[in-house]
Amino acid sequence: MKTPTVSFEFFPPKNAEMESKLWDSVKRLEPLAPSYVSVTYGAGGSTRERTHGIVKKMAEETSLKPAGHITCVAATKDEIDQVLRDYWDAGVKRVVALRGDPTAGIGTRYEPHPGGYAYANDLIAGARKIADFDISVGCYPEVHPDAPSLKAEIENLKRKFDAGATRAITQFFFYPDVYFKFLDQARAAGITQPIVPGIMLQSNFKGLKRMADLCGTAIPTRIADLYDGLDGDAETRDLVTAHVAAELCHRLAEQGVDHFHFYTMNRAGLSLSTCRLLGIKPEAKA
Ligand code: FAD
Known about the structure:
Elements (H helix, E strand, L loop, with lengths): L4 E6 L5 H14 L7 E3 L8 H14 L4 E6 L5 H13 L4 E5 L21 H11 L3 E6 L10 H13 L4 E4 L5 H13 L6 E2 L1 E3 L4 H11 L5 H7 L6 H20 L5 E5 L4 H10 L4 H4 L1
Parallel strand pairs: 1-2, 1-9, 2-3, 3-4, 4-5, 5-6, 6-7, 8-9
Helix pairs in contact: 1-10, 3-4, 4-5, 9-10
The structure holds flavin-adenine dinucleotide.
Protein backbone atom coordinates (compact mmCIF):
# COMPACT_ATOMS: atom_id res chain seq x y z
CA MET A 1 0.00 0.00 0.00
CA LYS A 2 1.28 3.47 -0.92
CA THR A 3 1.68 5.61 2.21
CA PRO A 4 -1.36 7.89 2.29
CA THR A 5 -1.42 11.58 3.09
CA VAL A 6 -3.58 12.95 5.88
CA SER A 7 -5.26 16.06 7.22
CA PHE A 8 -6.43 16.66 10.79
CA GLU A 9 -9.51 18.41 12.13
CA PHE A 10 -9.61 20.10 15.54
CA PHE A 11 -12.32 21.94 17.43
CA PRO A 12 -11.99 25.18 19.43
CA PRO A 13 -11.46 24.41 23.12
CA LYS A 14 -13.91 25.67 25.75
CA ASN A 15 -11.46 26.39 28.58
CA ALA A 16 -7.78 26.85 29.42
CA GLU A 17 -7.21 23.18 30.22
CA MET A 18 -8.71 22.07 26.90
CA GLU A 19 -6.73 24.76 25.12
CA SER A 20 -3.45 23.44 26.47
CA LYS A 21 -4.49 19.93 25.39
CA LEU A 22 -5.25 21.23 21.89
CA TRP A 23 -1.82 22.85 21.45
CA ASP A 24 -0.12 19.78 22.88
CA SER A 25 -1.96 17.67 20.28
CA VAL A 26 -1.12 20.10 17.48
CA LYS A 27 2.59 19.94 18.40
CA ARG A 28 2.57 16.15 18.52
CA LEU A 29 0.82 15.82 15.16
CA GLU A 30 2.82 18.52 13.35
CA PRO A 31 5.79 16.18 12.60
CA LEU A 32 3.47 13.92 10.58
CA ALA A 33 3.38 16.77 8.03
CA PRO A 34 -0.37 16.73 7.34
CA SER A 35 -1.44 18.32 4.03
CA TYR A 36 -3.44 20.80 6.10
CA VAL A 37 -5.26 21.04 9.43
CA SER A 38 -8.69 22.53 10.03
CA VAL A 39 -10.53 24.09 12.96
CA THR A 40 -14.31 23.80 13.27
CA TYR A 41 -16.82 26.54 13.96
CA GLY A 42 -19.36 25.88 16.74
CA ALA A 43 -23.04 25.35 15.98
CA GLY A 44 -24.78 28.68 15.45
CA GLY A 45 -21.46 30.43 14.90
CA SER A 46 -20.89 30.19 18.65
CA THR A 47 -17.09 29.88 18.52
CA ARG A 48 -16.34 32.57 15.94
CA GLU A 49 -13.61 34.41 17.88
CA ARG A 50 -12.00 31.25 19.24
CA THR A 51 -11.91 29.54 15.83
CA HIS A 52 -10.34 32.57 14.16
CA GLY A 53 -7.80 33.03 16.96
CA ILE A 54 -6.65 29.41 16.80
CA VAL A 55 -6.44 29.35 13.00
CA LYS A 56 -4.37 32.52 12.91
CA LYS A 57 -2.10 31.29 15.72
CA MET A 58 -1.53 28.05 13.79
CA ALA A 59 -0.55 30.08 10.73
CA GLU A 60 1.81 32.26 12.75
CA GLU A 61 3.38 29.75 15.12
CA THR A 62 3.49 26.38 13.37
CA SER A 63 4.63 24.96 10.04
CA LEU A 64 1.07 23.73 9.43
CA LYS A 65 -1.28 24.95 6.73
CA PRO A 66 -4.46 25.78 8.66
CA ALA A 67 -7.99 26.00 7.27
CA GLY A 68 -10.73 27.85 9.13
CA HIS A 69 -14.21 26.37 9.02
CA ILE A 70 -16.70 29.06 8.20
CA THR A 71 -20.48 28.80 8.20
CA CYS A 72 -23.47 30.78 6.95
CA VAL A 73 -25.22 30.73 10.34
CA ALA A 74 -26.03 33.89 12.33
CA ALA A 75 -23.89 36.29 10.31
CA THR A 76 -24.39 38.78 7.49
CA LYS A 77 -22.52 38.51 4.20
CA ASP A 78 -20.45 41.56 5.18
CA GLU A 79 -19.40 39.95 8.46
CA ILE A 80 -18.41 36.72 6.74
CA ASP A 81 -16.58 38.57 3.96
CA GLN A 82 -14.58 40.46 6.58
CA VAL A 83 -13.55 37.21 8.24
CA LEU A 84 -12.45 35.83 4.87
CA ARG A 85 -10.41 38.96 4.14
CA ASP A 86 -8.82 38.77 7.61
CA TYR A 87 -7.89 35.14 7.02
CA TRP A 88 -6.34 35.87 3.64
CA ASP A 89 -4.37 38.83 5.06
CA ALA A 90 -3.12 36.63 7.94
CA GLY A 91 -1.80 34.06 5.45
CA VAL A 92 -4.69 31.62 5.90
CA LYS A 93 -5.40 30.52 2.33
CA ARG A 94 -7.73 27.62 3.12
CA VAL A 95 -11.29 27.46 4.37
CA VAL A 96 -13.86 24.75 4.92
CA ALA A 97 -17.12 26.36 3.73
CA LEU A 98 -20.33 25.03 5.26
CA ARG A 99 -23.95 25.96 5.68
CA GLY A 100 -23.47 25.22 9.35
CA ASP A 101 -25.43 23.56 12.07
CA PRO A 102 -28.46 25.62 13.20
CA THR A 103 -28.20 27.90 16.23
CA ALA A 104 -30.36 25.53 18.32
CA GLY A 105 -28.06 22.59 17.47
CA ILE A 106 -27.81 19.65 15.07
CA GLY A 107 -31.18 18.25 14.08
CA THR A 108 -33.13 21.49 14.56
CA ARG A 109 -34.59 23.50 11.68
CA TYR A 110 -32.19 25.69 9.68
CA GLU A 111 -33.25 29.24 8.78
CA PRO A 112 -30.95 31.28 6.55
CA HIS A 113 -29.88 34.63 8.06
CA PRO A 114 -31.85 37.38 6.22
CA GLY A 115 -28.68 39.29 5.28
CA GLY A 116 -26.41 36.27 5.02
CA TYR A 117 -25.31 33.54 2.64
CA ALA A 118 -28.15 31.03 2.59
CA TYR A 119 -26.34 27.78 1.74
CA ALA A 120 -22.80 26.51 1.33
CA ASN A 121 -22.81 27.05 -2.45
CA ASP A 122 -23.60 30.78 -1.91
CA LEU A 123 -20.80 31.05 0.66
CA ILE A 124 -18.33 29.37 -1.71
CA ALA A 125 -19.22 31.79 -4.51
CA GLY A 126 -18.75 34.69 -2.04
CA ALA A 127 -15.35 33.40 -0.88
CA ARG A 128 -14.23 32.94 -4.50
CA LYS A 129 -14.94 36.64 -5.14
CA ILE A 130 -12.69 37.63 -2.23
CA ALA A 131 -9.56 35.60 -2.91
CA ASP A 132 -8.21 32.45 -4.46
CA PHE A 133 -8.93 30.26 -1.42
CA ASP A 134 -8.49 26.49 -1.33
CA ILE A 135 -12.08 25.60 -0.38
CA SER A 136 -13.15 22.31 1.17
CA VAL A 137 -16.83 21.46 1.60
CA GLY A 138 -18.83 18.81 3.43
CA CYS A 139 -20.63 15.89 1.78
CA TYR A 140 -22.75 13.06 3.08
CA PRO A 141 -22.43 9.52 1.66
CA GLU A 142 -25.35 8.43 3.86
CA VAL A 143 -27.34 11.51 2.76
CA HIS A 144 -27.68 14.72 4.81
CA PRO A 145 -30.79 14.62 7.06
CA ASP A 146 -32.19 17.68 5.17
CA ALA A 147 -31.67 16.14 1.71
CA PRO A 148 -34.56 14.16 0.21
CA SER A 149 -32.40 11.57 -1.62
CA LEU A 150 -28.89 10.53 -2.62
CA LYS A 151 -29.54 12.10 -6.02
CA ALA A 152 -30.39 15.46 -4.37
CA GLU A 153 -27.30 15.12 -2.19
CA ILE A 154 -25.08 14.66 -5.25
CA GLU A 155 -26.78 17.56 -7.07
CA ASN A 156 -26.07 19.79 -4.08
CA LEU A 157 -22.44 18.67 -4.02
CA LYS A 158 -22.17 19.44 -7.74
CA ARG A 159 -23.57 22.96 -7.05
CA LYS A 160 -20.78 23.45 -4.50
CA PHE A 161 -18.07 22.35 -6.94
CA ASP A 162 -19.60 24.49 -9.68
CA ALA A 163 -19.43 27.44 -7.26
CA GLY A 164 -15.68 26.89 -6.83
CA ALA A 165 -14.99 24.25 -4.17
CA THR A 166 -11.64 22.46 -4.35
CA ARG A 167 -12.48 19.20 -2.57
CA ALA A 168 -15.17 17.59 -0.45
CA ILE A 169 -14.70 15.90 2.92
CA THR A 170 -17.26 13.28 3.86
CA GLN A 171 -19.27 13.00 7.02
CA PHE A 172 -17.88 10.06 9.02
CA PHE A 173 -18.99 6.60 7.97
CA PHE A 174 -18.03 2.99 8.75
CA TYR A 175 -19.03 1.01 5.65
CA PRO A 176 -16.48 1.32 2.81
CA ASP A 177 -19.20 0.44 0.29
CA VAL A 178 -21.24 3.47 1.35
CA TYR A 179 -18.27 5.66 0.39
CA PHE A 180 -17.59 3.90 -2.91
CA LYS A 181 -21.25 3.99 -3.96
CA PHE A 182 -21.30 7.74 -3.26
CA LEU A 183 -18.02 8.22 -5.14
CA ASP A 184 -19.35 6.30 -8.16
CA GLN A 185 -22.53 8.40 -8.25
CA ALA A 186 -20.55 11.62 -7.89
CA ARG A 187 -18.24 10.63 -10.76
CA ALA A 188 -21.28 9.66 -12.87
CA ALA A 189 -22.70 13.15 -12.21
CA GLY A 190 -19.52 14.71 -13.63
CA ILE A 191 -17.79 15.53 -10.33
CA THR A 192 -14.05 15.07 -10.86
CA GLN A 193 -12.64 16.73 -7.73
CA PRO A 194 -11.33 14.78 -4.70
CA ILE A 195 -13.87 13.35 -2.26
CA VAL A 196 -11.87 12.71 0.89
CA PRO A 197 -13.11 10.20 3.49
CA GLY A 198 -13.63 11.78 6.92
CA ILE A 199 -12.50 9.23 9.51
CA MET A 200 -13.90 9.51 13.03
CA LEU A 201 -11.58 9.01 16.01
CA GLN A 202 -14.17 9.26 18.79
CA SER A 203 -13.48 6.53 21.33
CA ASN A 204 -16.38 7.42 23.62
CA PHE A 205 -18.88 5.00 22.12
CA LYS A 206 -21.93 6.66 23.71
CA GLY A 207 -20.90 10.00 22.19
CA LEU A 208 -20.17 8.33 18.87
CA LYS A 209 -23.59 6.69 18.81
CA ARG A 210 -25.30 10.00 19.65
CA MET A 211 -23.47 11.78 16.81
CA ALA A 212 -24.09 8.94 14.37
CA ASP A 213 -27.83 8.99 15.13
CA LEU A 214 -28.00 12.75 14.52
CA CYS A 215 -26.04 12.54 11.25
CA GLY A 216 -27.60 9.36 9.90
CA THR A 217 -24.34 7.40 10.01
CA ALA A 218 -24.85 3.64 10.35
CA ILE A 219 -22.66 1.84 12.89
CA PRO A 220 -22.12 -1.83 11.97
CA THR A 221 -23.17 -4.26 14.73
CA ARG A 222 -19.68 -5.76 14.53
CA ILE A 223 -18.19 -2.40 15.55
CA ALA A 224 -20.79 -1.72 18.27
CA ASP A 225 -19.96 -5.17 19.69
CA LEU A 226 -16.27 -4.28 19.91
CA TYR A 227 -17.16 -1.49 22.37
CA ASP A 228 -19.65 -3.60 24.32
CA GLY A 229 -18.81 -3.62 28.05
CA LEU A 230 -16.03 -1.03 27.69
CA ASP A 231 -17.86 2.00 29.13
CA GLY A 232 -15.49 2.08 32.10
CA ASP A 233 -12.32 1.19 30.18
CA ALA A 234 -11.10 4.19 28.18
CA GLU A 235 -7.72 2.64 27.46
CA THR A 236 -9.15 -0.39 25.66
CA ARG A 237 -11.69 1.80 23.85
CA ASP A 238 -8.80 3.86 22.45
CA LEU A 239 -7.08 0.73 21.15
CA VAL A 240 -10.31 -0.45 19.55
CA THR A 241 -10.88 2.98 17.97
CA ALA A 242 -7.44 3.14 16.34
CA HIS A 243 -7.86 -0.42 15.09
CA VAL A 244 -11.33 0.25 13.63
CA ALA A 245 -10.16 3.48 11.95
CA ALA A 246 -7.02 1.91 10.49
CA GLU A 247 -8.97 -1.10 9.23
CA LEU A 248 -11.45 1.20 7.46
CA CYS A 249 -8.58 3.22 5.93
CA HIS A 250 -6.87 0.03 4.74
CA ARG A 251 -10.05 -1.14 3.03
CA LEU A 252 -10.45 2.26 1.35
CA ALA A 253 -6.77 2.36 0.37
CA GLU A 254 -7.02 -1.07 -1.26
CA GLN A 255 -9.35 0.58 -3.76
CA GLY A 256 -7.18 3.60 -4.41
CA VAL A 257 -7.98 6.14 -1.67
CA ASP A 258 -4.75 7.96 -0.82
CA HIS A 259 -5.82 10.79 1.50
CA PHE A 260 -7.70 10.62 4.80
CA HIS A 261 -9.14 13.43 6.90
CA PHE A 262 -9.15 12.57 10.61
CA TYR A 263 -11.66 13.97 13.08
CA THR A 264 -9.06 14.06 15.87
CA MET A 265 -11.33 15.13 18.76
CA ASN A 266 -8.23 17.21 19.73
CA ARG A 267 -6.45 14.04 20.89
CA ALA A 268 -3.07 13.32 19.34
CA GLY A 269 -2.67 9.72 20.54
CA LEU A 270 -5.51 8.26 18.49
CA SER A 271 -4.36 10.03 15.31
CA LEU A 272 -0.73 9.05 15.91
CA SER A 273 -1.55 5.38 16.44
CA THR A 274 -3.96 5.23 13.48
CA CYS A 275 -1.38 6.92 11.24
CA ARG A 276 1.29 4.51 12.41
CA LEU A 277 -0.95 1.58 11.52
CA LEU A 278 -1.12 3.12 8.02
CA GLY A 279 2.66 3.44 7.78
CA ILE A 280 2.73 7.19 8.42
CA LYS A 281 5.44 8.30 10.81
CA PRO A 282 7.47 11.46 11.16
CA GLU A 283 10.66 9.92 9.74
CA ALA A 284 8.89 8.86 6.54
CA LYS A 285 8.02 12.49 5.83
CA ALA A 286 11.37 13.98 6.83
P1 FAD B 1 -25.25 22.61 2.27
O1 FAD B 1 -24.35 22.03 1.26
O2 FAD B 1 -25.61 24.04 2.12
O3 FAD B 1 -26.57 21.72 2.23
C1 FAD B 1 -27.32 21.30 3.35
C2 FAD B 1 -28.73 20.97 2.89
O4 FAD B 1 -29.40 22.17 2.61
C3 FAD B 1 -28.78 20.14 1.61
O5 FAD B 1 -28.79 18.78 1.86
C4 FAD B 1 -30.07 20.60 1.01
O6 FAD B 1 -31.13 19.83 1.53
C5 FAD B 1 -30.24 22.01 1.49
N1 FAD B 1 -29.85 22.99 0.46
C6 FAD B 1 -28.61 23.23 0.00
N2 FAD B 1 -28.63 24.20 -0.93
C7 FAD B 1 -29.90 24.58 -1.04
C8 FAD B 1 -30.57 25.56 -1.80
N3 FAD B 1 -29.89 26.34 -2.67
N4 FAD B 1 -31.90 25.68 -1.64
C9 FAD B 1 -32.58 24.93 -0.78
N5 FAD B 1 -32.00 23.96 -0.02
C10 FAD B 1 -30.71 23.81 -0.15
N6 FAD B 1 -21.03 22.49 11.12
C11 FAD B 1 -20.70 23.59 11.84
O7 FAD B 1 -21.59 24.29 12.35
N7 FAD B 1 -19.40 23.95 12.03
C12 FAD B 1 -18.37 23.25 11.48
O8 FAD B 1 -17.20 23.61 11.66
C13 FAD B 1 -18.68 22.09 10.70
N8 FAD B 1 -17.70 21.36 10.09
C14 FAD B 1 -18.04 20.32 9.27
C15 FAD B 1 -17.04 19.64 8.58
C16 FAD B 1 -17.35 18.58 7.72
C17 FAD B 1 -16.24 17.86 6.97
C18 FAD B 1 -18.71 18.18 7.56
C19 FAD B 1 -19.06 17.05 6.65
C20 FAD B 1 -19.71 18.85 8.25
C21 FAD B 1 -19.40 19.93 9.10
N9 FAD B 1 -20.38 20.65 9.78
C22 FAD B 1 -20.05 21.74 10.54
C23 FAD B 1 -21.79 20.25 9.71
C24 FAD B 1 -22.56 21.01 8.62
O9 FAD B 1 -22.56 22.39 8.87
C25 FAD B 1 -23.97 20.46 8.64
O10 FAD B 1 -24.00 19.14 8.19
C26 FAD B 1 -24.98 21.33 7.89
O11 FAD B 1 -26.27 20.88 8.28
C27 FAD B 1 -24.86 21.22 6.38
O12 FAD B 1 -23.78 21.93 5.92
P2 FAD B 1 -23.36 21.86 4.37
O13 FAD B 1 -22.30 22.86 4.17
O14 FAD B 1 -23.08 20.49 3.98
O15 FAD B 1 -24.74 22.38 3.74
